[in-house]
Design a protein that fits this description.
Layout: H1 6-34, H2 39-61, H3 75-91, H4 100-123, H5 142-153, H6 159-164, H7 171-200, H8 217-249, H9 256-276, H10 280-307, H11 315-340, E1 363-364, E2 369-370
Antiparallel strand pairs: 1-2
Helix pairs in contact: 1-2, 1-5, 1-7, 1-10, 2-8, 2-10, 3-8, 3-9, 4-7, 4-8, 5-10, 5-11, 8-9, 10-11
Function: Putative sodium-dependent amino acid/proton antiporter.
InterPro entries: AA_transpt_TM
GO molecular function, one term: L-amino acid transmembrane transporter activity
Length: about 375
Amino acid sequence: MKQAGFPLGMLLLFWVSYVTDFSLVLLIKGGALSGTDTYQSLVNKTFGFPGYLLLSILQFLYPFIVDPENLFIGRHFIIGLSTVTFTLPLSLYRDIAKLGKISLISTGLTALILGIVMARTVSLGPHIPKTEDAWVFAKPNAIQAIGVMSFAFICHHNSFLVYSSLEEPTVAKWSRLIHMSIVISVFICIIFATCGYLTFTGFTQGDLFENYCRNDDLVTFGRFCYGVTVILTYPMECFVTREVIANVFFGGNLSLVFHIVVTVIVVTVAMLVSLLIDCLGIVLELNGVLCAIPLIFIIPSACYLKLSEEPKTHSDKIMSCVVLPIGAVVMVFGFVMAVTNPQDCTHGQEMFYCFPDNFSLTNTSDSHVQQTTQLSILNISVFQ
């Protein structure tokens, strides 16, 4: 919302969710047309080895661009401990269906975090100064916002795995499941985006939790819940990366020993990346434009256009012809803008409004704070 402008951001959020819904159904349709049951085999049959290799690289890289936590007090120790204690054991599962109950726990925690953000919109929002351009319709960084939104909805890389885990999987059953899931997801995203932006407007950070003060116990509990959701969600991403390695180097099958070795390597490398990065915003942008955009916008549409024998006027073909070039443009320009104009990052430092005795302000912009009147109202009582 900060990058795109709140009104345009809402429109883009609905559009990205619609494209995600469309492409997820299109992906399974492409699998049915080609007689394949994995994303890699679909692309391999459609575009040969070059396409297979490109997709494998995208699917492999996706979990490594994720920055799990931003808990800056002893974050290195916490990340290492949680990885060894929880993430690695969960990632060793060989059946993705066994992760279903774990994902349900993660969903419940997400709802809890959402409640915390909503509560702080009411109790904290009125005391945070609003930036001058908070309510403009559109901003020049809208393309970067599309990348972040795409990251939020990406699940194409494990869609075939989930599809195959359904009882009596069919395209119609998958379509109903996807429609329901996308509706719920976009509802959650809208509430998060609205409450977060209404609270902090132009001061909103790439990681919303960076906006809250450290002495806010309720939000600290929310940070803990967020860390747990990442721990419970990451094994599914590791599952896909391990499958890519198995398909490319081991003919699709891993012995028990190689299964353990590959899992340990993948989890360890991802952990090392997360230890080196403490800015979630740039991670979301780069992951969105480099991995999510191709996996959502470009590859499903390209596969369907090549495989389908429907007439050119068919609605799916028309939509694919629209989505594919838009995805290519967003990918190129989004990458350039993410590198040249990255999101703000506090690197764990508290925001200025967490120190009411040192700051006074009434009128602000993105780049500076005009100190005019004492903001004594923002004190510890706001967070209790």
